[in-house]
Sequence to fold (260 residues):
Amino acid sequence: MLIDSHAHLSLELTGLASLLDSMNRFDIDQAVVVGGGLVDLSKLQVPGSGREILFDNLALLELCEMAHERLLPFFFANPWVRPDHYASVGPRFHGLKLGPVVHGCPLVSPQTRSYLDLAARFRHPVYLHCLEQDGLRVTDLCHLAADYPDLTFILGHGGVGHFDYAAITSIAPFANIFYETSGPFKAVVARAVEILGPHRLLFGSEHPLQGAATELAKINDLGLSDEAYDAITGGNIAHLLGHSRKLTKKVVTRVIPASR
Fold:
């Protein structure tokens, strides 16, 4: 079973059509999706540039429903806002997404912890990015992993930048931190396999900024055993999300944008 552990979905039918087309072309059964298009790409490395932004998570749910269970939505939280909405609709989602690069809220802050407390209640894995900024570093994530040993964290894009060997060493002692592979160089991912073991890696495409063709090629080039390959490209995330079955029939969904 091939599962993309990280894709972005904007709230437009054209975005949904593009993602499903990519999944169909590369035989991807399911994809974890989070909101996309929240801030201008030129501001993505400015933490807090979207501090006031709230993503319409219910609209994301509606789009995912059109894909017949192929898309697995994560709730995109803004920790500067009370978690009341997440508390009420959280069970309809498969996980929690934190975007420090958008909202700039420190990982170890009370605001972030209010969401993590709920994620623990819902048994949601928590996907997040890290930056080389105070309160947003991989070492801050490690502090959270120590404080929430029963909560699963997913380190997006293998840490900070394409060459973050230090992130691998930092998270190694924390079995509840998984490593998502979109972004870092192949040699860095190979090191992650060596240090963390294939059972802690998750293939992600970072669609549409990156893509399944690029990221799958990187995984294919690692020379993995069949067992390790299957774990990284689907088995691990399926286990985290509590999915144990393959889709009995892949729905080749085609979405036609509404006429204007």
About this structure: Confidence is low (pLDDT under 50) at residues 244-260. The first helix runs from residue 13 to 25. The chain is about 40% helix and 15% strand.
